[in-house]
Amino acid sequence: MHGDETVGREMLLHLIDFLVTSYRRDPVITRLLNNTRIHIMPTMNPDGFEATKVPDCYYSPGRYNKNGEDLNRNFPDAFENNNASIQPETQAVMDWIKNETFVLSANLHGGALVASYTFDNGNSVTGSLKGYSRSLDDDVFIHLAKTYSFNHASMYKGTGCDNRQTFPEGITNGYSWYQLEGGMQDYNYIWGQCFEITLELSCCKYPPANQLEKFWRDNKAALIEYIKQVHLGVKGQVTGKNGTPIPNAIVEAKGRAHVCPYRTNQQGEYFLLLLPGTYVINATVPGFKSMLKTVEIPDNTGNFSALKQDFSFPEVSIKPEAPSCPKIPLYQELERASAAVKPTLHILALMTVMLVIFK
Predict the structure, then answer these.
(1) Catalytic residue IDs
(2) Where is the active site (predicted)?
């Protein structure tokens, strides 16, 4: 995302080469590619990379795009109004996210050695007052971050890049590290139905070229294991009359209703990343009764296929239109709604006390 943080760019070029040269030679890579749609964008900020004339470990103007904007502060934010002008690179990525059914992703950075997970921003609804901004899928995000850090040559040690900052087990909640408005990983999770983490791959943002081979060795296994995690959880198709796919049906795990409901794509497909365990999956076609199914989810990442659970609504013959989830600070609205409820509870408690006294 930042043009002067070059290790991620090079690692993705190495990854492309490794995948295509290992196909039909390495059985694991062959099965991975046969069962997984993988999209790789080596750089989101080519102008920033080209502008970095003098490599520097700490800072250069190449962090920003040609318009001087930080692309990882440029996305709509779910917690506060982001007044930054949407850049062409950001809009292109937002369109890409909208047009594809992405399930798992990572964006790559430099300047630290840690796997950071959502939320990057927060408010009282997500517990930010305690210094940690927790999503409903916090357990999954911790697992994803640990998957990368523990398969990396040294990230799991959590030593950081200097004595001032350490990251236990090589992971951190984004907000706990530092608050960030307009970040890509929060946008992807809320509006893209995609679980994304941020990977900081090098203490030096623009290291010498002769170190790249070691960086690849350090990250190779972690990148592959991370991609496998797209097969966590449950997937399936929602169909109607005569088996016709139903797009825009809401499919969520009970207790994990996202602020923007996760919906089926145009083929009626849904994908939910969940750790092994027992869950109740709720499928809802607007205007019709919901359908609940209890599922026992195993760890199927080694089999390269999530548990399959379809839903059939034979009485449905229409394709419901999905109201687009507005790109506004949705958690700000939740916080206001929560605050509005509290006085009622206090009055109710006071009335109960008074009733007891009167009795």
Answers:
(1) 200
(2) 200 (proton donor/acceptor)
